[in-house]
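Example (one chain per record):
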Amino acid sequence: MVVFSIASKYGGECKDYDHICQFRALFPYMYSIGWSESDYGPGFDVATNLIGTACSKFIPQ
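Predicted structure:
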């Protein structure tokens, strides 16, 4: 699974109240951009490219 987040973006660890940050931190294949970005397209491109990486690492159980 790949998670793409459009939310507030800041560096460092998640704040205690930021449940979106805590959720996306659960996923090894995650990309986030700030909601104030003027163009979300490049972020979608990065997240889409992560799908191939995630699928290549998948090992059926």
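Caption: The two ends are 15 Å apart (CA to CA).
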